[in-house]
Design brief:
Blueprint: E1 10-21, H1 24-32, H2 40-58, E2 67-76, E3 80-91, H3 96-118, E4 129-140
Antiparallel strand pairs: 1-3, 1-4, 2-3
């Protein structure tokens, strides 16, 4: 783990995004609230927030950070579900790993809750894919 003890505490913010490609029928079921496992987007939002809090538990060299805010935006698009998460903290190191973890877990939650709709006749997921997971922006210093 990197020693950050000499660094000043400053406001930090990071935004990450990603997509989960799904079949048109699955996306329609999401839009219409017909997914058998329940409210997919609400569950994925909670999963994203939980992921932010648990990031140092799953990434071995990640510092525990006192998180001050999390914004989760999930959008059902024509070919995918888009997740965007912004994480804020006042600390000595950045929050981009928390934002990336949150995006990934939100999309994995959507996948888990829709997998029965995504499987083909052989039980495979030929078109389902996480794509474009990346840090959109990170900021530090003056209040973001």
């Amino acid at each position: 783990m990197v020693d950050v003890s000499a660094k000043p505490v400053v406001p930090r913010e990071a935004t990450a995004e990603g997509h989960l490609r799904l079949k048109p029928e699955t996306l329609a079921a999401l839009r219409e609230g017909r997914v058998p496992k329940g409210d997919v987007l609400a569950t994925a939002r909670v999963a994203a927030i939980q992921a932010v809090k648990k990031t140092p538990d799953v990434l071995p060299l990640c510092h525990p950070i006192p998180i001050t805010g999390v914004d989760v935006r999930l959008t059902v698009l024509d070919e995918s579900v888009h997740a965007e998460v912004t994480v804020r903290a006042d600390y000595k190191t950045g929050v981009e790993m928390e934002a990336l973890t949150a995006v990934t877990l939100a999309l994995l939650t959507v996948w888990d809750m829709t997998k029965a709709l995504e499987k083909d006749a052989q039980g495979q997921y030929p078109g389902t894919a996480l794509t474009g997971v990346r840090v959109v922006e990170k900021r530090k210093g003056a209040a973001p």
